[in-house]
Design brief:
Strand content: under 5%
Distance between the termini: 48 Å
Helix content: 55-70%
Oligomer: single chain
Radius of gyration: 19 Å
Number of strands: 0
């Protein structure tokens, strides 16, 4: 039972701290408790806030996947460079990167990027991606009370 829980957490990409704090221990049968400073949310926020500069450096990486991932992290923390990286990915060649960046930007919308999102929909050639983008833009407008 415990092995299956560990494998499930690893396959879903959870951190080892999350795993330690949330799964049932193999011997005690009780849920393990971590001190507040080691709680996953606190731990991840602390690490990421210290390493913002590192993520900014990753925006210069030659691989678009790395730039996109770094942009998502920076955008989550409200860094303008993260928004710029996602907007750049929105104009890229890779369909998955365009869609991923569009979804990320539309989940945390601000009025300044709505025009760029609308332009991305107009420029998109794939009908299914365009459909998903339109749906997400509509939800973003609702979040901003524009519809």
């Amino acid at each position: 039972m415990w092995y299956n829980e560990v494998m499930k957490h690893i396959l879903y990409g959870f951190s080892i701290i999350f795993l330690f704090s949330s799964c049932i221990g193999p011997f005690s049968g009780k849920k393990r408790e971590l001190p507040k400073e080691l709680h996953p949310a606190h731990h991840e926020t602390t690490i990421l806030s210290k390493d913002i500069q590192h993520y900014k450096e990753l925006l210069k990486d030659p691989h678009p996947e790395i730039r996109l991932a770094a942009g998502k992290v920076l955008f989550e923390f409200g860094e303008p460079s993260g928004e710029e990286a996602l907007l750049e990915a929105l104009k890229g060649e890779d369909l998955h990167h365009r869609l991923d960046s569009f979804i990320e930007l539309s989940e945390k919308p601000n009025p300044n990027i709505l025009e760029a999102l609308q332009s991305a929909i107009s420029a998109e050639k794939d009908a299914m991606v365009r459909f998903v983008m339109k749906r997400n833009l509509k939800q973003a407008r609702k979040k901003l009370n524009l519809e």
